[in-house]
Amino acid sequence: MSAMRQQGVKYNFMATALAIEQLAKVSKLNLEIQEIELKNAIGMICAEDIYSPTDLPPFDRSAVDGYAVCSETITSASPNNPIPLKLLSYSPTLSSCSYAVPVATGQRIPEGADAVVMLEDVDREGNIIYVLKPVPKYGNVSRKGEDIRKGELLIARGTIIKPPHIAVLSAIGMTRVKVYRKINIGLISTGSEVVDPSYGLKAYEQGLVLDSTSILLLSVLSMHRFVNVNWYGFVKDVKQEIKAVVEKALNENDVLVLTGGTGPGETDKTFEAIVEMNRDVKIIARGLAVRPGRPTSILVANGKPVFLLSGFPVAAYIALHEIVLKALCMLLKIRGELFIEIPVKLSKRIYGAVGYDTYVRAKLFKCNNELCVEPILLHGSGVLKSLLEANALITIPRNVEGYEKGEVIWIKLL
Known about the structure:
The chain is an alpha/beta fold. The protein is built from nine helices and 28 strands.
């Protein structure tokens, strides 16, 4: 009798959201905080709440190249009634409203001035300018603090740092920022039939399979700068070999992701091998209510999350997006979504599977000046071509039968 049956562990096909919630209750990811140079912080997770120490702009400044003036002096200005003002060299103070001071874009407005006339709206003769157009109070002026207020929260802890964050932090004089260290994810490919692509096409003649799944997952994970992936290569469907590699990976990583060996077949040994290890192993879910990828399972070993994904590339790819990365967002308290969701019109009727969250690869395109999405109706968990054609993912929740043609639905961009 198998270890799975001995322990009474059967497929329960737990709902994804519930599984992730249960995982978060028994597993924590406590990453150390590092202070790094701002230029190296792109894609990292901010480890502190950052508030602005100053107003931005820090003073009233010109939004254009022109002349700082008193607005009340030029209210009647027009080409037929040019208002003359004496031109002064730049000064921090405008001593009289009968004067004007030249200012460049971004330059501080002299005290006493409250507007800027653009260069093209004046005629100049020597040290006299003739204003041809009125400007309202604070016209062409960027007011102090209109962009950012002193004390305003700029970046919340848990935010993935993006280029605009770098720009804002630079503007307040920061050159270093505190971030969480990269999370180490161990990636293991199981399956006696799986070999490295370098083996060549002769693999298929020998009944072997060239790996595409683990390299796919490695590529996706590597796109996230806050992740460091350690790949442990291919492991045969032998319990002792699986246990040895998992033991090593658990000691060297925060999270494990394994592909293959999650099904109910006689050669699928991954789940049993981990459960039998001399470790504190908790079973969160043996199978998830998702299609594709029902054999996907979640365990916790010595407090570390372990995700067992299908060996089929599409099923593993979707599970990585919808389970692994969502779980990491919850465990790391990442703010915001890693993926963009938008509403679009459905071009074809589509069905789900009651009781299962169904994920359908889809193609987003423009139709009649609006965005539409067409399901790629291919069956099976290993249809690689569908990933080439898909640029979006449709989710049909477990309590929804499907969607009608023309219905507006939310999709996730891939």
